Every structure is written in C-alpha cells, then in structure tokens.
Automatic annotation (TrEMBL):
Keywords: Molybdenum. InterPro entries: Mo/tungstate-bd_C_term_dom, Mop_domain, Transp-assoc_OB_typ1. Signal peptide: none annotated. Residues 2-67 form the Mop domain. This is Molybdopterin-binding protein.
Length: 68
C-alpha cells in the first residue's frame, strides 16, 4: 500500500463502536489513542476488530491548536 499521506501511524485497535451509520474506531499508537469516524461498511470491509493491528493515516493541510 502506497499513500501520499506522510503521517501513517501503526497501532492496535482498542475499540470499535458502531452507530446507525458511522463507527468510531480507536487505535492505540504506543500510549496515545487516535479516534476516527468511518462508515460501518468500511469497518466491515477492513475487518477491523479489537486487538488487531491497523494504521491511522492522517492527511491534513491545517492543524488547529487551542487552549483555555
């Protein structure tokens, strides 16, 4: 698999929560957890299950930073 994104983080799926249309997938990438909202059909096609390895692929032209 080759991607144009430069931020490809390998980790372990720690949670998959399916809703009516989308699912929230949480991937532990070495102590930090990345969450993603993807379609349920994508979860099924990728065969995402807790305990299995997956990649969080991040491609963004902007990163927002905030503080209180």
């Amino acid at each position: 698999m080759k991607l144009s994104a430069r931020n490809v983080l390998k980790g372990t799926v720690v949670e998959v929560t399916k809703g009516a249309v989308n699912a929230i997938v949480r991937i532990d990438i070495g102590g930090a957890v990345v969450s993603s909202s993807i379609t349920i059909s994508a979860v099924d096609e990728l065969g995402l299950k807790v305990g299995e390895q997956a990649y969080a692929v991040i491609k963004a032209s902007d990163v927002m930073v905030g503080r209180d």
